[in-house]
């Protein structure tokens, strides 16, 4: 098992924002985390990467990664897994990219940090990675504001391809994209899985979750209300909130 969450809780002051969430992800698996905005999905992702903003904190439970207990423990234990072992794609690719650096330099810096490449070799590899995600290699000299939202997401996927993380956390990666760009991003994520990465795929969109995830957990009000095989969960939901989601999905379909 690659990732295990055991009764994980997140609090701010005396208020619990996420309560006793448990699930696991195997190596090479796509696990979907489905729920409305404010249900606690992104807080869980931030906790896994050691990115909770104080005064928010993990207030209970355990996180284990590849057999190593990361929590209970210091935030540094979570943070040192970030990047090469656990890579997070944020909902806003524009916010994740430095607006004052070319995308090529940003990819190259990540590669240098992980693989100790020379600056020249890292920039050359950055161009090859951009081409691998369907962008032109000469966009290494472009700045984030010169790219569309879908292109910015593909830049983040290019970074992930270069780092070869064991776990990719994709937080609402298709939000704001048109249908063609969203499909391209989903297909790229599937190719990452085929190369061996496990993926925690976070979304409020049941269609994208059903496209990628073998198993899915449903978040509501800071709790994991249901978990199971995605097809079975869609066909015979047990929780009332999941039934509401699947009913809306079937009407739209």
Automatic annotation (TrEMBL):
It is a peripheral membrane protein. Signal peptide: none annotated. One of its GO terms (cellular component) is plasma membrane. It comes from the Bacteria. It is found in: Cell inner membrane. Its main location: membrane. GO terms for molecular function: ATP binding; ATP hydrolysis activity. The keyword Membrane applies. Pfam families: ABC_tran. InterPro entries: AAA+_ATPase (IPR003593), ABC_Ni/Peptide_Import (IPR050388), ABC_transporter-like_ATP-bd (IPR003439), ABC_transporter-like_CS (IPR017871), P-loop_NTPase (IPR027417). Residues 3-246 form the ABC transporter domain. Keywords: ATP-binding, Cell inner membrane, Cell membrane, Membrane, Nucleotide-binding, Translocase, Transport. PANTHER family: ATPASE AAA-TYPE CORE DOMAIN-CONTAINING PROTEIN, OLIGOPEPTIDE TRANSPORT ATP-BINDING PROTEIN APPD. Belongs to the ABC transporter superfamily. This is ABC-type dipeptide/oligopeptide/nickel transport system, ATPase component. It comes from Candidatus Electronema aureum.
């Amino acid at each position: 098992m690659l990732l295990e969450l055991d009764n994980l809780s997140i609090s701010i002051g005396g208020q619990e924002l996420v309560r006793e969430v448990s699930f696991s992800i195997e190596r090479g698996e796509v696990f979907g985390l489905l729920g409305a905005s404010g249900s606690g999905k992104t807080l869980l992702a931030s906790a896994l990467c050691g990115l909770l903003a104080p005064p928010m904190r993990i207030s209970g439970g355990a996180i284990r990664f590849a057999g190593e207990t990361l929590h209970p423990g210091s935030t540094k234990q979570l943070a040192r897994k970030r990047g090469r072992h656990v890579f997070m794609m944020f909902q806003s690719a524009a916010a994740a990219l430095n607006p004052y650096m070319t995308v090529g330099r940003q990819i190259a810096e990540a590669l240098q940090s992980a693989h100790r490449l020379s600056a020249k070799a890292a920039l050359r590899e950055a161009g090859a990675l951009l081409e691998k995600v369907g962008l032109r290699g000469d966009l290494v000299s472009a700045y984030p504001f010169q790219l569309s939202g879908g292109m910015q997401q593909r830049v983040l996927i290019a970074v992930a391809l270069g780092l070869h993380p064991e776990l990719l956390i994709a937080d609402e990666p298709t939000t704001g994209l048109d249908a063609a760009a969203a499909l391209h991003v989903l297909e790229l994520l599937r190719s990452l899985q085929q190369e061996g990465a496990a993926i925690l795929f976070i979304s409020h969109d049941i269609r994208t979750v059903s496209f990628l995830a073998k198993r899915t957990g449903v978040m509501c009000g800071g709790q994991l209300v249901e978990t199971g095989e995605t097809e079975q969960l869609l066909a015979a939901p047990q929780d009332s909130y999941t039934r509401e989601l699947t009913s809306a999905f079937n009407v739209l379909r």
